[in-house]
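=== RUN LOG ===
request id: a7f3
mode: sequence -> structure
chains: 1
length: 80
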Amino acid sequence: MEKVYLIKDLARLSGQTVYTLKYYLNIGLIKEVDRSPETNFRYFDDATIERLKKIRELRRENKSIAEIKEILEFSTGFTK
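=== RESULT ===
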């Protein structure tokens, strides 16, 4: 069974700040898998954590956000 995370959990597990995660959401690098109708909280899954690991790896290689977005879109077919 796949786990579901809130943005604060995603920040803790990925080592990214909530601000950075919201930025990645805004530009389409990551996306929520669901949203609570009552609280409007965003939910994420294990695939998002793996994607964030790949983003961090590419940032360590000094890739720009635009390059990372292009690489990830090409490799996974993921679009905003």
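=== NOTES ===
The mean pLDDT is 90.
DSSP finds four helices and three strands in the chain.
=== END ===
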